[in-house]
Design a protein that fits this description.
By secondary structure, this protein is α+β, with helices and mostly antiparallel strands. It is built from six helices and eight strands. Strands 3-4-6 form a three-stranded antiparallel β-sheet. The chain has a three-stranded mixed β-sheet with strand order 5-7-8. The protein has a two-stranded antiparallel ribbon with strand order 1-2. Helix 5 packs across helix 6.
Length: 225
């Protein structure tokens, strides 16, 4: 495989054109590459499935949606037995998700576009709901909010989203949220503060620190409603 840097884009990123032997670049990357782990995971990952959700299907994300790491096939089976309907959606996590907000005004921060897909079957499940919509992770939440109209109706979509959710945002379809504890100054922490409140989230994080909860990818989760 050969790579040629053809452009420097926003945020100091590089646009690289690859040439390779084979029909599928993902097969080549899977053979010669390494899992792009967050910098706080220092040990080499021996089993790639440890940093992957059990329901992942499509390659393309720069990281795993961490809230989904808490779910096993057995747990999903127990959830279905309770009558809960599961509606799969997809968001390819981009590098911009992990970048801290450096702007003095939140409104000046620019989110990188991320690819999302909400199939008609999933939209129909959500729109025919009789209970609450529980988003597993900020990625699922951002996906749902990107495709919902002001009446809370979810529309099938495949494309990019650059939605930035921070305090003051009115949620259109997400009723509850399962999420990990996130990095300070991150857009993810702003999203959960918008969903609950800044004071409640600061209290939750203070307890997490006091009780020595685990943070980030393999950390503890919380249920916000």
């Amino acid at each position: 495989m050969r790579g040629e840097v053809i452009e420097t884009v926003n945020g100091g990123n590089r646009l690289i054109k690859f040439s390779y032997d084979g029909d599928n670049i993902f097969a080549v990357l899977d053979k010669i590459g390494q899992m792009p782990l967050p910098p706080y995971i220092t040990e080499k990952l021996k089993d790639r499935n440890r940093y992957q959700t059990v329901y992942a299907r499509e390659p393309g994300s720069a990281a795993a949606p961490t809230a989904g790491l808490h779910f096993t096939p057995e747990l999903l089976g127990r959830i279905r037995e309770k009558g809960v309907k599961i509606a799969p959606v997809m968001l390819h996590v981009g590098l911009g998700t992990f970048r801290p907000v450096k702007e003095d005004r939140i409104e000046d921060h620019v989110m990188h576009a991320e690819f999302i897909s909400v199939p008609k079957e999933s939209a129909d499940i959500i729109n025919s709901r009789s209970g609450r919509v529980i988003a597993v992770g900020t990625t699922s939440c951002r996906t749902l909010e990107s495709v919902a109209d002001e009446e809370g109706i979810v529309h099938p979509m495949t494309g990019d989203t650059g939605i930035f959710i921070y305090p003051g945002y009115r949620f259109k379809v997400t009723d509850c949220l399962i999420t990990n504890f996130h990095l300070p100054e991150s857009t993810l922490l702003m999203l959960v503060s918008a969903f609950s409140s800044r004071d409640i989230m600061l209290n939750a994080y203070a307890e997490a620190i006091r009780e020595k909860y685990r943070f980030f990818s393999f950390g503890d989760a919380m249920f916000i409603y």
